[in-house]
Amino acid sequence: MIDFDWLFFLEVSLAGLGSGALLALTGLSFVLIYKATRAVNLAIGEMLMIGAYAFFSFSAGLGLPWWAAVPAALACGGLLGAVIERAVIRPMLGESAISVLMVTIGLGSVLIGAVELLWGADPAQLPDFMGTSPVFLGPAYVSRKIVIGFAVAATVITLFILAFRFWRGGVALRATATDQGAAYSCGIDVPVVFSMAWVFAGVAAAGAGILVGAVGGISPAMGIFGLSALVVVIVGGLDSVVGALIGGVLVGLIEAWTGTYLGGEFKTLITFGLLIAVLMVRPYGLFGTVEIERL
Amino acid sequence: MRIATAKESYAADEALFDTPTQRVWLALFVAVCALFPFTANEYWLYMACLVAIHVISVTGLNIVTGFTGLVSLGQAAFMGVGAYTVAVAETRFGTPVLLNLIAAGAITAAVGAVVGIPSLRVKGLYLAIATIASSFILHFVFANWNSVTHGVSGISLPPASILGVEFGRPFALYFLIVPIAFLAVFSASNLFRTRIGRAFIAIRDRDISAEVLGIPLLRYKLMSFALSSFYAGVAGGLWAYFFRVVTPESFPFVYSIFFLAAVIVGGMGSILGSILGAVFMTMVPEVLKLGVGVMSPFLSDAVALLSPVRTIVFGGLIIGFLIFEPHGLAEIWRRIRRFFHLWPFKT
Known about the structure:
By secondary structure, chain A is an all-alpha fold. Chain A has helices at residues 6-37, 44-61, 66-89, 97-119, 144-166, 168-178, 180-185, 190-216, 225-236, 241-261, 266-281; strands at 135-137, 140-142.
């Protein structure tokens, strides 16, 4: 590598930025759940997968146009979030965080099995609804799907941040995250906040799932994307929205660079190495709240 | 507490098996285990060996997760380390079987202690996530350290042989694996009568209080990881002798979830639970297979349903036990036992 190909590097970085936006969106969904219910949701990748498969059914199975199939799939994602919260997370309220973590592991397993049962174990392609003509940003070539994915993810994330800041529900969510007891005494219906958090997280995950599926195809193993999202939230801090964004872009770029320059098998090594390094240096991530324990 | 079993000395009170009834049942159980291979067919011997291997590994995971309160999702990867150690030792150096198994345990314990190092800074959820990362990194090492692990093609090894006796068939392996499983389970139950085991339990119940009481947290947490990994390593070594081919795909991440599920279903913080969990979780797929066999005349693609149904059942068992029976099968067992102990006075 005597003369470094800057244009190629730029293209790889842009692709990384695109997948980073998807990671950030998934991370946002993760943070939403963690902030509200203190549940580390290891089934996030599987919720993503259900969203993608729902879209697959609506568009390829029922033949709906994409503008009808996308909302339908998002609604499915939200419904899934609500069902999970009511059936599995609500009974675990007050249990240790570790138990909730293990419940979500079981949940992930159930969702994978359900997808294999309903749609089969073979990978599939989502019907193309974004067009394939490439996009040129200056001299650099970028896949159209990645540009659209980035744009959508960025818009949704912005909407979420605005909602957190200004919408009543968002404020209620932040209040619940800060102090559950105080939120109760201010008249906030905390269980409803929990449900809302899961519903919105389900919608965000389904959206991310459609975008991820459109770029990389769908299969029962696509939940593995959730593990990258896990790295994102650990790097950014489990309860920080900003952290999820910066972590997402960071991990997206690092994955793209290692995937291109070292080979695809190094991706897991580098991302999980990063995860352990961050845990050792800054256990609560770059922007996470440091928990102080008292006896 | 059993009726009419008053203790007259501390030694009697602290004994591992403190009632005559318990000792009689135990002797019966040992006798059944010893006679089992002469009556069972090849399939049941195969299952018994697999169960015994899983019992060792689940007991190890229970030490770290159930007794020390550190969730580890790397048990399968640790078993992989043990299996690769045995495979390499057997094919390259031809060292004796028992030495290989001890080496597998020791090396895995060292790896486990390294994986436990993040507990220096993090605990709880974060530690669980760190063990997920470690398990994927170990998988990467298995698949890419070609000079030692032969990459994805893996290593095949000859049958174990001790003093000229070849342990090839499940019948012979049974007499290698099951005694080791017995030894492992007894050592584990004895561990929790010692200072170290009590320290583990103190850390689980409240780590800050334990530290105040003078338990050096880091040392004991690493010790717990190392011990648990030692068990995993020995189990992995036996696994290698049992299946005689070791590849990176032999120890996937779901296998770690399987072990965690076995600990939860069996009962966290209970040695009996480890045994029950390992037996139960190993038999569940077999029962499902049986069910599929029954269904296949009526359902054309029943066999294709097996894998997804198994995945769902595993997840469902984890969720169901955590929500409805957090202390697992061991608690159910205890309830049944209490009924008979107190009968006819109170049920």
